[in-house]
Design brief:
Helices cover 35% and strands 21% of the residues.
């Protein structure tokens, strides 16, 4: 029996450098890969294996390059705090995490996966501890993911040893899954992971062919620590010890040294802004335009949903676009096609994907989403490009269909791989238990 699926839609957003849109178009998928993308010539294809989505836009699935899926358990608890400072994080989140145990995590991961699927995300990069407990939840969801085991040291030798051992065990147990891979997750270089830990984390990543997923430049704390302890900039030390030679996600980068962005150009490092969190936290705007102009890869992330209540990467696109223009005092500082690139192929590149992944071209992974034309807040035909309508007028939650690696995760508006009501019910029980522990302490 053939596994080939041919998806037809009124508009196919190819996501290439020319902004190609096929109206109408057909995308052929086989074995989890796109095998062809063609304009519809004459009558629309029909028959076995053909799915015609009608008045829809078919486009690549979105990539959330910085998330903490278990933290939907604590959604809302950090309001009024900045999680981008060590003080705010310790007070609002770490104080609760002190009472967290592994069994309280999986249901919240299921909730987070469901919300990402529902809003058009097909791939994500995660970072948290207890990852061995929730890895099966991610696999069951069907999402593509790089799951980094979080390591928090805070200058404690025992905590460092325990975190490194747990991360090593996690990577050894993660196996060779084609969709869900294990990574290493230092919480923050030089701030709560000192040089000895960083060296060990880098060696671990190299042993396992994994990447590193960390926070960087949330404030100026890394730079201040390195200037104080080593008399040099943080980025120069990171380059010297080889951190840019492995896949490296640097989340936030609000306070990254603008004059040193060129150190990241042409390396395997990616900066991952989270514009909504930067604004909510009262932080500096990340220098996305400057980074792109310097040749640095940039992807898009939501961060945790304590500081950002929304999984929708379309909202992150337009928030970043507006923030960049407001900061630069330049309209369209990051054009819509570039915003979409940050949430698609640049995210795949950050996670080690091929150059074609995140585009609708032959050979790319079959990660696609469909949105109804009627759900876009779009101007008259010819007045606004499709890229602009997607970046500034779409909601991921309007998506009707979501596919990862040729498998439907959402079909006709319904989730197919996650039981969201059950996960939410369990999440509430888990939260009640966590708060009972906090009150009893």
């Amino acid at each position: 029996m053939s596994t080939v699926v041919r998806i037809v839609a009124d508009h196919v957003y190819v996501n290439d450098d020319d902004g190609t849109v096929l109206s109408a178009g057909v995308v052929e998928i086989d074995g989890g890969l796109i095998t062809s993308v063609e304009p519809v010539s004459g009558s629309r294809p029909r028959g076995e294996g053909v799915l015609d989505l009608g008045e829809s836009i078919l486009m690549p699935g979105l990539v959330n390059a910085h998330a903490h899926t278990p933290m939907s358990l604590m959604r809302g608890v950090s309001e009024g705090h900045s999680l981008l400072t060590l003080e705010g994080w310790l007070g609002a989140i770490r104080s609760l995490e002190a009472h967290l145990t592994p069994e309280l995590v999986p249901a919240s991961v299921a909730v987070s996966c469901a919300e990402m699927i529902a809003s058009g995300t097909t791939t994500f990069a995660d970072q948290y501890f207890y990852a061995e407990q929730y890895l099966p939840v991610i696999r069951d969801s069907g999402l593509r993911a790089a799951v980094a085991y979080g390591i928090v040291e805070l200058g404690d030798d025992d905590a460092r040893a325990a975190g490194l051992a747990a991360a090593e065990a996690f990577l050894e147990s993660a196996g060779d899954d084609p969709l869900v891979r294990g990574w290493v997750g230092p919480h923050a270089f030089f701030v709560d992971n000192q040089l000895e830990a960083i060296d060990a984390e880098l060696a671990m990543a190299r042993r396992h062919g994994a990447g590193l997923h960390t926070h960087y430049g949330t404030s100026a704390e890394e730079e201040e620590a390195c200037q104080r302890d080593y008399g040099r900039s943080a980025l120069s030390i990171m380059r010297e010890i080889g951190l840019f030679d492995v896949p490296l996600l640097l989340a936030h980068c609000n306070a990254i040294a603008r004059d040193e962005l060129a150190l990241l150009a042409g390396t395997r490092a990616t900066i991952v802004p989270a514009a909504s969190v930067a604004m909510i936290s009262g932080a500096e705007a990340p220098p996305v335009r400057e980074a792109l102009d310097a040749g640095v890869n940039v992807a898009l992330g939501t961060d945790n949903w304590c500081g950002d209540n929304n999984a929708d990467l379309f909202e992150e696109m337009r928030t970043l676009g507006k923030l960049a223009a407001f900061t630069a005092k330049t309209p369209n500082s990051i054009p819509p096609r570039e915003l979409i690139a940050l949430a698609t192929w640049r995210g795949h590149r950050a996670l080690g994907g091929s150059d074609d992944d995140g585009r609708l071209v032959a050979g790319a992974v079959a990660d696609v989403i469909a949105l109804p034309v009627g759900a876009l807040h779009r101007g008259p035909a010819g007045a606004q490009s499709l890229a602009s309508a997607l970046a500034y007028g779409a909601s991921g939650f309007s998506s009707t269909d979501v596919m990862t690696a040729g498998r439907w995760l959402k079909r006709d508006g319904a989730l197919t791989t996650v039981d969201l009501p059950s996960a939410r019910a369990q999440q509430q029980r888990d939260f009640d238990e966590l708060m009972a522990r906090v009150r009893a302490a």
